[in-house]
User: Which sequence fits this backbone?
């Protein structure tokens, strides 16, 4: 999935050191799960950010605020609460952005500080199928922990503009050193302390069509927003995430002052 729901040649000889991370059999079994989420029973915190370009996901962190990736700054934005497939087909025109704030240090030539806040024109009604996510209460590294990526994608041979399947994918938080050396990493960007990577494997890549800026939750807290990837996040491929815990002060400041 390429970057961008409101997702540039010298021949050299190089010695490559392969770093292999081998999860336990139990971890492998968990990470290979690729299940369609039961929309009838599972609540959502996802918001569909659609535009004339490419759609992204947003994550509800407040009744009137959505957190997404800064590279998802999209014109002519339509906003939907992504509670069911029908929501995509029946647009709720009463949800509109009234205030959009990209992180002040974000630039288009870097993957760092890739966060954006969107204020909705009115609070979202919280109910059984619509919930808020909790921001992290610690900046501790969760390396090796099991986390969950939640997103929307398209089933095979579905060419409709709206996604039709919601996925919860089990992944693992890898060390930045491992991901920096991963052979599937296609973009030469340094992974900083404000970022982390997660997936079910450092070696595999898949092809699929899915929405960008997916959230990753660890211990039921929002720890990352997808900045870019080298494959299919919802099939467990490596994703590179903005570490939300490094930006909670900025998030609270923007919300409280607006």
Assistant:
């Amino acid at each position: 999935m390429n970057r961008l729901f409101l997702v540039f040649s010298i021949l050299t000889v190089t010695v490559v050191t392969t770093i292999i991370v081998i999860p336990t059999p139990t971890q492998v079994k968990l990470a290979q799960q690729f299940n369609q989420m039961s929309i009838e029973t599972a609540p959502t915190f996802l918001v569909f950010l659609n535009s004339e370009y490419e759609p992204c996901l947003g994550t509800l962190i407040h009744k009137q605020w959505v957190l997404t990736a800064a590279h998802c700054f999209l014109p002519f934005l339509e906003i939907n609460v992504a509670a069911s497939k029908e929501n995509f087909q029946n647009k709720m025109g009463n949800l509109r952005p009234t205030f959009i704030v990209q992180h002040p240090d974000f630039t288009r030539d870097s993957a760092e500080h890739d966060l954006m806040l969107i204020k909705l024109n009115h609070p979202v009604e919280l109910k059984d199928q619509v919930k808020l996510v909790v921001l992290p209460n610690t900046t501790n590294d969760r390396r090796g922990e099991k986390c969950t990526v939640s997103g929307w994608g398209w089933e095979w041979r579905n060419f409709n503009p709206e996604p039709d399947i919601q996925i919860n994918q089990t992944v693992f938080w890898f060390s930045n050193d491992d991901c920096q050396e991963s052979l599937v990493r296609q973009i030469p960007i340094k992974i900083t302390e404000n970022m982390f990577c997660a997936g079910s494997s450092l070696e595999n890549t898949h092809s699929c069509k899915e929405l960008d800026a997916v959230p990753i939750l660890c211990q039921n807290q929002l720890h990352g927003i997808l900045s870019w990837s080298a494959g299919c996040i919802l099939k467990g491929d490596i994703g590179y995430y903005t570490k939300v815990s490094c930006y909670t002060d900025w998030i609270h400041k923007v919300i409280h002052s607006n």
